[in-house]
Amino acid sequence: MKEKLALSNEKYGIVGLTGHVGIAHAHGANNYQQDDGGGFCAAGTIVSKALGVDTRVREISCTTEKITVKLMGGGSASTMPRRRVTPQETAMMKRAEGKDALFSQGVAAEVFGRVYGQGVAETAACFQAALALSVLDSFKKADPDRVFVVPESEENAGAILGTVVEYDGIPVSVVMPVNFTGGGLGPDEDYEGNFMHGMKGEMMKKIGYPLPTIVAESKVFSVLSEESDHNRFLIRYSEDKGDPSVAKALEESCKDLSVPFFVRNDLLNYDADSFQALSSKFADKLEKIATELRETEISSVKVRLVGELAKLVSEDAAGFTYMSRSVFAQSSSPGLHPGTSAVLSMIVGKNYIKDHVIPIITESDRDDYVRVILSAVKKLAQK
To answer: Which among 342, 355, 356, 383 is most buried, taking Cβ atoms within 10 Å?
Structure first.
């Protein structure tokens, strides 16, 4: 990128950027699949350029209890899968040395084939978390005084980074949440996006929030994929609960850069009752399976029922377990602070999933995210 990126000497930004990674949040209700680290990868690329930090993996070491990832940039992180680490898993993970930890879900998928949450594939989830957390640690070590890192909460094992970078003279407050549940059980994303609460909210105040904020999000296959043959950026916002000026800056940037996109102002749902109803519907399905299991004595039926249960837990459960009802009511699913933001995500084309099964962000995707974001930052700074 030609424009200069550096760590800013300003305490506060005038524009905000957030990009989270939901560890192992690869599936959800209504048959969607995603790489939920797209925003983290884009925001992290910008911070890595500003700090001059190398985010490639230098070394991976494991015991039967713990996974440790060390990066070229000097940071490291350790995670502990609930059901421990096998020697075979250790050998597989070491193949990721030299890979870029910013692409955490993609790197984990290269090693394990795919990533499941909800406690289904704990080693893969913990490996992804160690990659992402080691990025935060590398950034913190590069400038401990101007890079802030706080834990998600007492319940979670993730962390959230905040700092102010300068882009062409514009101070930008960047927030990078790693949403991770210890043991590899995730995702729990109460601390995603730019929603300000808890220790995250206090840290965000230190760098100038609330601000007009670009919330960079995931690369997704969903029902919207059926509308196009190719990948497109999706710009989402709410007229009354978001900031239309952020959406307009993103829209103009996509046009200027000739990047395929579409805009929707009707997709952000704040209906907490409907969100909570997903838990009840899921419980009904569990009860039906439990009833059939109690009544059958046939092995083939038991195997089928347990297989249905595994699919529900590994995929559908992520559609409602990722956020608390009270947080959803205030912030919607991307974690949006009221009146401040618009969301940039990527929707894959309808044929993508036939070959790829689960979306994974590529370097080209990341570069497009960064180009759109930096262009939008300039437009917002001029308002």
So the answer is: 342
Does this model's pTM top 0.85? My answer is yes
Q: What is the pLDDT of residues 143-184, one digit of tens each?
A: 999 999 999 998 899 999 999 999 999 999 999 999 999 999
